[in-house]
Recover the amino acids of this structure.
């Protein structure tokens, strides 16, 4: 009953999803200075996949996710979060003290807060997608 | 040092991958880790012996004075070496023992993680560092005992071990916090350097009792000893490693670590020596009841742990020498014997010693190893175990208090232990050949090397105690336990004295007991009804009681209706907060109205949405109107220049609507609407809640008890955290720890929802015909928002 099959939704979803995903990455990267950040970006990305999910159903979405199980995303998010804790330790500072490195050529600020934020992104995306897909799957099998 | 411990965990995490690369040789590859650690520890030994200790410190929570610090002194060196050396052999042995097992990767993971935790435990200097590793050993032990997770007995034993040790861990934490508070330091090293005497402190008694509870549960002291024999459900390499050589000695290690600061009082001596002596005798006495070779060994381990506790209780210099010697001796022979037990089980298919016999010809090397190790267990010269036992008896004879009791118990335990040793050395290997489930043959090299080296070690150290620097190692360990320099010099011959006479007498009597074992056992079987009322029955009773209590309170409080929960929570909130505001702040409240036109419109929309949600007759209608409120709130955030909050609110609202819509399809129509009375009640609560929130906002607006922290964040966000978006800087930098915690909460909630849905999904497939029941269940479908 959720899989719609209307042409407008299908066509829109096909074009909107990549745009939304790119937008989510944009939000993620600018988050430290402008409105945005991992949590918001994660929700936007989840929204993108959910739209696709509503238009094409669970199995098509799974194909788009290319075998990446949302549950693995949750794990990856937590792992990144934990990884960002450690570098300060090697510098002889308390855990979680932010570390900043500048990548010279493209003048990009790399930092542990960014790694942490990417972790938040994956955790949020994985959690929401996991729940939505589980709900959809239950739906699919019931009369 | 910290990298070494960390390496262990990284290695554990990557062991499944290594398993894929190296296949059957993974055990050997993993064994390199403890082997290298052992070499490193050996290389540090001269420094430790000359300097006394090595301290390495890393900041952890500097604002609380807590750091992740590691301490290497004589005591941790001795334990560290036991862990790494025996660990190396256990890993090699496990490769043979579990060859071809489908879950060997999981086994490696848990075992290496345990190894790293145990190393962390004995190297920890911080009180809380020690506690974290202490709990990690409990958890990894749980995973290892329950390794054969399809076996219900194994699961039950794993749970029992976990409950007992973790309950003790709770007491330990209380004790450590008391210790840290009383001494003003969170480091063992600093506490050791202090002038003030903790024994005089007013909190000494509760502190000591909490710490002892932790140590006694971990080290299976009476009356908590029952979990250890149950833990024998684990694969034998685990029993050899965790449940004889290392983890169960963590409690002993803690006692030894605390001895210089807390030991020597009447309370300490009284509890430790008496509990230790009782444990010693209980373990030895219960051992001879059993014919299962692993249970025999487990009870004799309890006996050894009791002995160690008793020696720490006696506390004389002699006792400390005995302590370190007995510790080393026991780890060596018991590790070897457990591995022999594993070989017998593996090659014959049975664990029952009465079902084996005449295996000497089929397994000559195993027979020799078992014989040598058992001699050391029995304390027969010239094995190292003899020196340990001799010193132990001497220490008991010289005890200042309870000496008669301790000597009597030690003597009885010695007799029983000798019988146990004889059973293991002779019963399976000599006498008539008995048909076993498998045709016995000699074990592979990987399974023989460990026990062979350990047994040989017992022999060499016995003949020449000064070899391999054992003297020096034990000296520095004993020095750390006593707290002041102590010279340990061991030898086989101390002249003819009381201890030697007792040794000889116990040997004779023990051998006699072995000869009569079968008869004695059938007599003991008559005691079985009385044994059922032991501490284990108490544990079962307690557990059942807890389950019954939870059932009762769940029925009472958790009736499964969301509306009841919310009603109770709101009423409590209104009562508590409303009371506090009215009593304390009522006169200070002031209201200044300065509202713009568009703000009124947004607020009006919200009120309309709320009203419609309450009177709507369809779920979807109510949901949409709640959504309108959510979006209006987002609008307010944006109006008051908080774009991040606005965006977040919008997105969360969208996601909530999507999730709710998905759930809504699964719900039936409103079946029974509220009665008028209920509506009046609910309406009253809702109105009061609205007033409460209003008052709360007014309070927050008009009362400033502290300087707001927001200015600090605004000022430092760009210069210190290199970010202009303060909300994001707070999330990922200032309060990153909170966010990390929230990430875990989110992940757990998501996994919970997924698991519940999948579980129900599976149920539906198996019983798809139950139409009415299925509907009823879906109404109660828990939803985590």
């Amino acid at each position: 009953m959720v899989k719609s099959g209307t042409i407008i939704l299908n066509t829109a979803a096909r074009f909107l999803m990549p745009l939304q995903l790119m937008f989510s990455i944009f939000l993620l990267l600018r988050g430290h200075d402008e409105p945005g950040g991992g949590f918001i970006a994660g929700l936007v990305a989840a929204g993108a996949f959910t739209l696709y999910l509503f238009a094409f159903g669970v199995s098509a979405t799974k194909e788009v996710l290319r075998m990446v199980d949302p549950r693995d995303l949750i794990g990856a998010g937590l792992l990144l979060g934990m990884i960002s804790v450690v570098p300060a330790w090697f510098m002889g500072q308390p855990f979680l003290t932010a570390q900043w490195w500048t990548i010279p050529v493209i003048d990009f600020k790399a930092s542990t807060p960014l790694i942490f934020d990417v972790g938040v992104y994956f955790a949020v995306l994985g959690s929401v997608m996991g729940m939505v897909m589980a709900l959809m799957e239950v739906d699919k099998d019931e009369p | 040092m910290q990298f070494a411990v960390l390496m262990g965990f990284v290695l554990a995490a990557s062991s499944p991958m290594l398993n894929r690369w190296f296949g059957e040789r993974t055990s050997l590859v993993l064994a390199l880790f403890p082997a290298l650690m052992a070499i490193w520890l050996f290389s540090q030994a001269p420094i430790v012996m000359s300097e006394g200790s090595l301290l390495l410190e890393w900041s952890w929570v500097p604002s609380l004075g807590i750091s992740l610090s590691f301490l290497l002194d004589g005591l941790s060196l001795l334990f560290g070496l036991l862990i790494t050396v025996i660990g190396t052999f256990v890993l090699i042995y496990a490769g043979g023992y579990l060859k071809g097992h489908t879950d060997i990767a999981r086994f490696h993971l848990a075992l290496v993680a345990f190894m790293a935790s145990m190393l962390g435990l004995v190297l920890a200097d911080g009180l809380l560092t020690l506690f974290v590793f202490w709990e990690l050993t409990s958890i990894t032990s749980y995973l290892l005992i329950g390794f054969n997770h399809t076996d219900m007995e194994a699961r039950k034993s794993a749970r029992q071990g976990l409950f007992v040790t973790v309950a003790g861990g709770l007491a330990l934490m209380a004790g450590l916090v008391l210790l840290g508070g009383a001494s003003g330091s969170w480091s063992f090293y600093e506490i050791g350097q202090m002038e003030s005497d903790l024994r005089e402190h007013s909190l000494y008694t509760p502190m000591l009792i909490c710490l002892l509870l932790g140590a006694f549960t971990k080290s299976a002291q009476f009356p908590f000893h029952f979990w250890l024999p149950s833990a024998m459900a684990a694969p034998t390499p685990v029993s050899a490693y965790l449940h004889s050589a290392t983890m169960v000695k963590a409690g002993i290690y803690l006692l030894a670590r605390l001895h210089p600061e807390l030991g020597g009082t009447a309370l300490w001596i009284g509890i430790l020596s008496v509990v230790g002596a009782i444990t010693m005798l209980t373990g030895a006495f219960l051992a001879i009841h059993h014919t299962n070779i692993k249970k025999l060994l487990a009870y004799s381990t309890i006996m050894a742990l009791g002995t160690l506790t008793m020696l720490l209780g006696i506390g004389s210099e002699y006792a400390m020498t005995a302590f370190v010697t007995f510790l080393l001796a026991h780890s060596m022979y018991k590790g070897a014997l457990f591995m022999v037990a594993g070989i017998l089980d593996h090659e014959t298919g049975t664990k029952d010693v009465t079902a084996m016999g005449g295996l000497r010809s089929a397994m000559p090397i195993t027979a020799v190893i078992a014989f040598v190790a058992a001699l050391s267990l029995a304390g027969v010269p010239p094995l190292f175990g003899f020196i340990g036992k001799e010193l132990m008896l001497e220490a008991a004879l010289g005890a200042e208090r309870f000496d008669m009791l301790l000597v009597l118990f030690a003597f009885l335990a010695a007799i029983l232990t000798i019988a146990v040793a004889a059973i293991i050395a002779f019963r399976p290997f000599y006498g008539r050949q008995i048909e076993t489930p498998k045709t016995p043959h000699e074990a592979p090299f990987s399974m023989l090397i460990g026990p062979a080296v350990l047994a040989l070690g017992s022999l060499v150290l016995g003949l020449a105690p000064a070899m391999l620097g054992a003297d020096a190692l034990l000296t520095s360990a004993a020095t750390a336990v006593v707290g002041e320099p102590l010279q340990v010099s061991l030898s086989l011959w101390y002249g003819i004295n009381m201890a030697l006479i007792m040794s000889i007498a116990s040997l004779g009597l023990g051998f006699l007991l072995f000869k009569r074992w079968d008869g004695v056992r059938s007599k003991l079987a008559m005691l079985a009804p009385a044994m059922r009322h032991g501490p284990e029955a108490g544990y079962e009773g307690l557990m059942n009681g807890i389950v019954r209590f939870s059932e009762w309170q769940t029925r009472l409080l958790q009736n499964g209706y969301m509306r009841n929960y919310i009603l109770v929570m709101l009423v409590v909130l209104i009562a508590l907060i409303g009371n506090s505001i009215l009593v304390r702040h009522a006169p200070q409240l002031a209201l200044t109205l300065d509202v713009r036109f568009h703000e009124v419109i947004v607020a009006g929309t919200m009120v309309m949405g709320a009203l419609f949600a309450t009177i709507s007759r369809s779920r979807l209608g109510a949901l949409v109107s709640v959504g309108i409120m959510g979006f209006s709130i987002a609008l307010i955030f944006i109006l008051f220049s908080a774009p991040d909050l606005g965006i977040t609110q919008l997105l969360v609202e969208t996601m909530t609507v999507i999730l709710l819509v998905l759930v809504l399809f699964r719900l039936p129509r409103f079946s029974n609407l509220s009665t008028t009375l209920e509506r009046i009640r609910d309406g009253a609560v809702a109105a009061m809640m609205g007033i409460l929130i209003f008052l709360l906002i007014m309070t927050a607006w008009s009362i400033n008890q502290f300087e707001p922290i927001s200015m600090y964040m605004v000022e430092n966000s760009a210069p210190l955290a290199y970010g202009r978006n303060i909300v994001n800087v707070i999330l990922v930098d200032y309060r990153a720890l909170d966010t990390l915690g929230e990430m875990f909460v989110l992940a757990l909630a998501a996994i919970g929802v997924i698991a519940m849905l999948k579980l129900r999904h599976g149920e539906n497939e198996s019983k798809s015909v139950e139409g009415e029941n299925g509907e009823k269940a879906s109404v109660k479908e828990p939803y985590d928002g």
The longest strand of chain A covers residues 100-103.
